[in-house]
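INPUT
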Amino acid sequence: MNLFAYLGAWAMGTFERVGRASLFLYEIVAGSGQLFRRFTLVIQQVYAVGVLTLLIIMVSGLFVGMVLGLQGYNTLVKFGAEESLGLLVSLSLVRELGPVVTALLFAGRAGSALTAEIGLMKATEQLAGMEMMAVNPVTRVIAPRFLAGVIAMPLLAAMFSAVGVLGGHLVSVGLLGVDAGSFWSQMQSGVDFYDDILNGVIKSAVFGVVVSWIAVFEGYDAVPTSEGVSRATNRTVVYSSLAVLGLDFVLTALMFKGV
Amino acid sequence: MNQPENKTNNGETANGPSSARGPRLDPIGDALVEISDLTFKRDTRTILHNLNLRIARGKITAIMGGSGCGKTTLLNLIGGQLRSQQGKVLVDGLSVPDLTTEELFALRKRMGMLFQTGALLTDLDVFENVAFPIREHTRLPEVLLRHVVLMKLQTVGLRGARDLMPSELSGGMARRVALARAIALEPMMVMYDEPFTGLDPISKGVIAKLIHDLNHSLGITSIVVSHDVVEACSISDYAYLMGDGRIIGEGTPQEVQQSKSDYVRQFMEGLPDGPVPYQYPASDYADDLMQGDGR
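OUTPUT
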């Protein structure tokens, strides 16, 4: 009986929290309109969550591309198809690894920072102070950070894929001796703009919405203590990662069904 | 309008039972804030019990009481950050719990609040912190805005600290900057939440002087929530004493200090035990010790 009571309480708590998060998202979207008049607030946050995340994205992209080159070569060479290495590396990156790994890294670096920043603003009464100055913190603090995440994610994913392809080229052509012309021509002929690149961009935009939403909600909903902010930061990384991986499967099934 | 008496919710004045002293003239006059029969609960715990108080327009009113007695909750209810389950909260004739978000924000533009922590925005320097409400609510040209900010900073003695970040300020300086920000829009009322807590004697004196001077020079209404009896009484025109979510005493600071009420005496003299018990409610001590292991 206790187990049922526990499960019931857990389910009620979870649904209640999801409901609150949905209302919070609605409030953010409703308040975002005002930001077009003060777009500098969004640009500042694009710098904070996007530009400052660029280094880890580019380094990770480079190494992922290099590993793809090595792993792909070992397999393709058995079939004499090492000329297709450029296609394998680029498709892997733009369809899958670019959006997903970028979203996971973004959640770890920028998402956790957003949650901690907003949680600490709550704990130090900065958000309450804004409310008492008749300034809506959702419009002034939350919405710019959310929009910045949504804008930055596809751009970061594109950077990840681009650097990854260069990493793959470095290993394939420079180290393993694959013909450079074949590497680029196979890639050019095999990668479709709509089916591959655009779908990858859509994926990363969806991940941008989800990760930013989780990050700002967890910060805003954090218990205003050091332990509360710590737990909220932890939840951001865990929930974002799980959401990205789960959504990736759903989006992949929808997008690439007939390709 | 209710004719307030100098009496506690228990029916006693700060100096004894009201019936023994007869009715008094209204010591408050025109009230900016009127609270009647206010009850506020958090989950099952009642924070404020059937509270009645009035804040005089243009005066400094101190609300004193021990930690956790509901003082800050009361400020949050006046500012509309919390909504009461029962009772009235009127600010300048407006019923705060019934206001829409737009109406509440319009009212808050006429209020200032000094938080216990200062609540300065940590990513902005001193100048930008004071400029923040002005930038948000007005379209002042940059030259005028600079003049206004420097005037506010000059008032609190920190014009020279305009370029410092909040992390570079002492506790007293941070509170002075927060005070400059609170008066940036020239509000009709400023609420001070524990303005003296954690400050050295000099900083306490500076804050007390600023509250007093600003009140008189700008003609604003001030509500000072504090457990610092000496400082709060030194600047206030009228004082309420709260205990366990109730008003347990009220009057001019002199009247409150001379009160015979046990509650008031315990608080004013800082006695560890009395009507507010030293021990948190628990089972019998000897029985508890005999329980053996576990907690």
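end of record. Residues 5 and 23 of chain B are 7 Å apart (CA to CA).
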